[in-house]
Design goal:
The complex is a heterodimer of chains A (167) and B (414). Chain A has 167 residues and is α+β, with helices and mostly antiparallel strands. In chain A, 29% of the residues lie in helices and 30% in strands. Chain B is mainly beta and 414 residues long. Chain B is built from three helices and 25 strands. Chain B has helices spanning 2-16, 173-176, 359-365; strands spanning 42-47, 56-57, 61-68, 75-84, 88-93, 113-118, 123-135, 138-148, 180-184, 207-209, 216-217, 239-244, 250-251, 254-260, 275-277, 285-289, 292-300, 307-308, 336-343, 349-356, 371-372, 376-377, 383-385, 393-398, 411-413. The chains are: A alpha+beta (167), B mainly beta (414). Chains A and B meet through helix 5, helix 6, strand 5, strand 6 and strand 7 of A and strand 2 and strand 17 of B.
Chain lengths: 167, 414
């Protein structure tokens, strides 16, 4: 799996890499790595690409820009960036789910609390997950070796875009 | 409870009227199937509330396996294993293995091998151990299985199986809802090429080498990965048939069979079943529902406990409230009668009629019942034909790479 723009960040654990990453951290300021994809900006997309050791393809659409990251582990992550620069939706398809802390960013704690709240039912079964919270929807689906999912800010979709367009 | 009595009658008929089509008046029109109950390749399964105190599992089919120390007669039979055609490999809670001590698998460095498995709603973590596994009259010798445990050593930080990953573990009876998972789906291994040496630039978050200094991700040879037990049977090893009778709305329990092999014995012939081929990479096929096509994003999965699909929107189906105990399921004001088209990747097409009732009402009105024919819920971008799809159908699942009659594997047929 080749790496493109994210390769500067790639060599975590190597001393050289830490120096490079450290110097870039200085350039980018506090945006890296605390600020991650959902709700974040272009810097956060690059941080995701780096963390996934991925290659990235950018496709402009009418009301948003689609960034498709092919992670080193084969998973495809799509990040939808609105015209004001913020990421309002993230989707994934692949054998391995992306690091949810990385792709949910500031929404991660809300997601964790919602997941914990699910466990209280006495009716149990293994099933896809849908979390609908004010300002955040997270859905996990698929099956072993082919996981899918998406997370989005329901109120921040560009006008005319439907949730089923978040693929 | 009336419905469960009807069901018991039809189950008794299935047993006594062996090999005779069993179309009693209590059955729905989809139930033209016969449940095979005899043969060394037939494992009894039952949809029941499960084996975990305080939990009433909805739409879970459970079975027993006998696990033995390899090459010995030191064995333990463990029940309450969820029959899952959506995963591959046998996983058993550490707490359920009480009478045998299974050998830990070690890698070429002599270190213990552990595994992190990402499921839809949870993860499982624990050591890979080896067992001779008997399922009815079939034996998978020296089968690598995953033993589920949250105890040390733990997955490293950053793994999907670390405690701060966001998803809960399913390594306890309460969190798994079962004693284990019997994964008999479309693939021979639970990870495959992506975890094998050279399959990725770096080892993925799946198999781990765990010396005393801590666990690090490592590659795992295909043959050492946790295997679909069916693949290691000496015969009847190309797939399974899940056979469950029709359920009229609700039933307390349902008896059925898991038949090993497709077209390998007189009791597992493909017959007139239609073959729907699946994608050899994802194990998916295609479903079109209400003008939306889920291309290579649909699958048939006995381990999912309902029909799961995105809200059709026009008309929309309301979702149950998160506090109802049925969060994520659909709660229409009256039962919705729906239809979808299914299509194999290279062959097979058909129409499936199905119904989705109000999950909150179903659960509240039937607190002790396990089988719900009309249970449905939300999904994101895919269509999941869960256990209700199996009621009244004999569903064949063939394993990728194996030879089976009727088409190229992997496929489903029914």
């Amino acid at each position: 799996m080749s790496n493109s723009g994210g390769s500067l960040f790639k060599s975590r654990g190597l001393r050289n890499g830490l120096i490079v990453a450290g110097s870039l951290l200085g350039v980018l300021g506090t945006a890296f790595p605390a600020c991650a994809a959902l709700g974040g900006d272009t810097v956060s997309i690059l941080a995701d690409q780096s963390a996934m050791q991925g290659t990235r393809r950018t496709t402009p659409a009418n009301s948003y820009t689609l960034h498709e990251i092919q992670a080193a582990n084969g998973t495809v992550v799509r990040e939808y960036q609105s015209s004001d620069g913020n990421v309002f939706a993230v989707t994934w398809h692949g054998q391995f789910r992306p690091d949810m802390q990385q792709v949910l960013g500031s929404y991660f704690d809300q997601y964790v609390q919602a997941m914990q709240a699910r466990g209280s039912s006495t009716r149990r079964g293994r099933a896809p997950v849908t979390i609908q919270q004010p300002g955040l929807t997270v859905q996990l689906g698929g099956h072993m070796r082919a996981l899918v999912g998406r997370a989005y800010e329901p109120g921040k979709l560009p006008q005319g875009m439907r949730t089923e367009d978040i693929q | 409870m009336k419905t469960s009595k009807i069901l018991l009658v039809s189950a008794a008929c299935a047993a006594s009227c062996f090999s005779i089509a069993c179309g009693g008046g209590s059955k729905s029109s989809t139930d033209q199937t016969t449940i095979t109950t005899t043969g060394s390749n037939v494992l009894s399964i039952q949809v029941n509330p499960g084996s975990v105190q305080g939990l009433t599992y909805a739409n879970g089919a459970f079975a027993s396996a006998t696990v033995c120390v390899p090459g010995t007669s030191t064995c333990q039979t463990i029940g309450g294993l969820l029959v899952d055609t959506g995963s591959y490999g046998l996983r058993i809670l550490s707490s359920a293995i009480t009478k045998v001590s299974l050998p830990q698998q070690k890698n070429s460095s002599g270190d213990p091998v552990y595994e992190c498995v990402q499921f839809i709603d949870s993860y499982t973590w624990g050591p890979v151990e080896t067992a001779d596994v008997q399922l009815s009259g079939e034996t998978a010798s020296s089968l690598p299985i995953q033993v589920l445990s949250d105890s040390s050593p733990m997955a490293p930080s950053g793994s999907a199986c670390s405690p701060n990953s966001g998803l809960p573990s399913a390594d306890t009876p309460q969190s798994l809802g079962a004693q284990g998972i019997l994964g008999v789906g479309e693939f021979p291994q639970d990870c495959g090429g992506a975890c094998a040496p050279g399959g990725s630039a770096t080892p993925p978050d799946a198999y781990y080498s765990c010396p005393s200094s801590g666990c690090t991700a490592s590659f795992e040879n295909l043959a050492s990965q946790v295997q679909n037990p069916v693949t290691l049977f000496p015969k009847d090893n190309n797939g399974v048939i899940v056979e469950l009778p029709a359920v009229s709305s609700v039933a307390e329990t349902v008896n059925g069979s898991l038949v090993f092999g497709i077209g390998t014995e007189t009791n597992n012939e493909l017959g007139s079943a239609t073959v729907y081929t699946a994608d050899p990479n994802t194990g998916n096929f295609t479903t079109t529902f209400q003008s939306t096509t889920y291309s290579d994003e649909a699958f048939i999965d006995s381990g999912s406990n309902g029909y799961f699909f995105p809200d059709p929107a026009n008309p929309s189906i309301p979702v149950c409230s998160a506090t109802s105990g049925a969060g994520g399921f659909y709660c229409p004001p009256s039962t919705s009668n729906l239809s979808a088209a299914v299509k194999g990747i290279t062959a097979g097409s058909g129409t499936v009629n199905f119904s989705v009732g109000n999950a909150e009402t179903l659960f509240n009105d039937n607190p002790n019942d396990a089988a719900f024919a009309d249970l449905g819920g939300t999904a994101s971008v895919d269509f999941d034909w869960g256990l209700p799809f199996f009621y009244g159908r004999n569903v064949y699942t063939s394993i990728a790479g194996a030879t089976a009659p009727g088409g190229t594997t992997p496929y489903w047929a029914y």
